[in-house]
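During the no-cost extension, the postdoctoral fellow (Dr. R.K.) reprocessed legacy sequence entries with the updated structure-token encoder. One reprocessed record is reproduced below for audit purposes.
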Amino acid sequence: MASSTTSPVWYVYGVVPANLSPAAAPTGLDDSEVRVQRSDDDAPAALVSVLDGDRYAPGAIESTSGDVDWVSPRAVAHDRVLTWASDHGAVVPLPMFSLFSGDDAVRAMLRSRSTELASALDRLARGREYALRVYRVDSELLDVLPDFSPRLGEIAATAAAASPGQRYLLERKLETEKKAELRVVTQRLVDEIVDALAPHAISHVRSPIPRITDADAARGVLVLNAAFFVAPASLNVFQRTLTTLVERHGDRGFRFDFTGPWPPYHFANEANRGA
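Re-encoded structure tokens follow.
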């Protein structure tokens, strides 16, 4: 650790069962050692690193929090530690830069929230988090949109049977109606996807659509950003259901991106749980 003119700070990644061994834990922020800070023998414990007090003073963090090059490796390290912990049992993730003045302050937090954290660990031990993103490829979906919309299907059938002059007008109308119907069909299909998967998950959350990156834009328009909390015993049927959805819609204008397991970022707090 670099020399510091102030006392070091205790960085808490998350809360874990007291019996978790840190022996094989990855390095944390700034390649620091990750340790398990316990308060009482059977009470929840914290995954912590001791960091430089100058570098992680409130003012220093505030001044660098907008610097992607500074935040990004620390976000990767934060996630790396939590992913390791979730691979070994339940973990309650804490937000980045959850800082404490020392081990006494960490123990005080663990004791004051002992009942709440123990309950959360018990709940989170029942499953793992998986992420599902669905993208819409407009050039493909517009071609098959009449298959999803009886109204468009009727216009398409009428156009196919019409005289050349009428057909031109009906086809122009069909193209206009397709653009108006695109959002309606998309929402209905997204709802159907979630409704098909939700019975096989303990909980689920539909999150706001984030700002699109260049990589995402190349896949299409992001129309679903969801997380599912799935019990191990239900994972196979969840994946089979998802496979059926991919086979049904994957070549008809939709792309599926399924990843995980992840730390339970969306399900650590009761208020974040969906049903």
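Confidence is low (pLDDT under 50) at residues 271-275. The beta strands are 9-16, 35-37, 45-51, 92-93, 99-100, 128-136, 203-206, 221-230, 254-262. The remaining legacy entries will be reprocessed before the final report is submitted.
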